[in-house]
Amino acid sequence: MAFPASEAPLDCDVDVFNGVKVQVAALGEAEDFEGALKESLAVWAREGRTGVWLFVPNSRASWIPTALRQGFDFHHAKPGQAALIKWLPTTTPCMIPRAPFTQVGVGAVIFNSEDEILCVQEALGPLRGKGVWKIVTGSADPGESICTAAEREVFEETGLRTSFDQCLLIRHRYPSATANSDLYFVCALKLNAENQELVIDKTELTAAKWIKFQDYLTQPCWSEGTIGKVYREEINPVIERYRSGGFRSGLTATSSEGDSKYGKHSVYKAAAAGARANHRLTSLFRPFRSGLGFMRRLL
């Protein structure tokens, strides 16, 4: 059931939490913003509203000090707009969720038919110029699933077309209460075709190549710092188990872009016990299964 509309001087929308949202861009240039805001706050308090949101475009940035003087605080900012909030109830703590504080990253594990792993060297960032060969990594874009983010990053950086296979591991990094957290999804991908040409994005990479997995594992970087330790003790062993066919607990996607089953939701879950075959042994047993099928037809 919707909450009733507000009678405050400032035009606003009432949301499902009985809060109000004001699009400052829609207000007239000659608006007495300070007076209208002060009167509106009194009306909203009488109406029993909860939180007040002000969405202020860059063109009205000079109005922000007025809102701050009346008890608003910054919530978040995006290109072209800042959002300010004020909690009205005096008997309950503010229940407006914090601005998003978690970044979503992906790492792409890809092996070719020669049992080599795809690795790159970065042109920017902390590993620049250190000679480290690492898997393709990057950040998910807004509105993008983990599957698509991993496939896109590989194509953008190396020119290879791949398909998501499974999520091998999730690492959660939370450096401090004031810094963004980081969710890092290490994903296994399959090449759509062998013998694709590597075409690197020179703004992000200095090199990309297929290397023997043992050469990847024996790099000295895995003995350096906290991130190196996480790779050495957690991530690289999982990649090794996937490579050798001993990994059976990966998370597979039940939907993705283009699949309207859940709208803009992608669900990742572990396969039922015995439901997912070892990715290397599958090809070995295929002739045996075919032979059994032939014998059944004879009988």
From TrEMBL:
One of its GO terms (molecular function) is NADH pyrophosphatase activity. This is NUDIX hydrolase. Belongs to the Nudix hydrolase family. SUPFAM superfamilies: Nudix. PANTHER family: FI03680P, NUDIX HYDROLASE RELATED. Keywords: Hydrolase. The keyword Cytoplasm does not apply. The keyword Manganese does not apply. It comes from the Eukaryota. Residues 101-236 form the Nudix hydrolase domain.
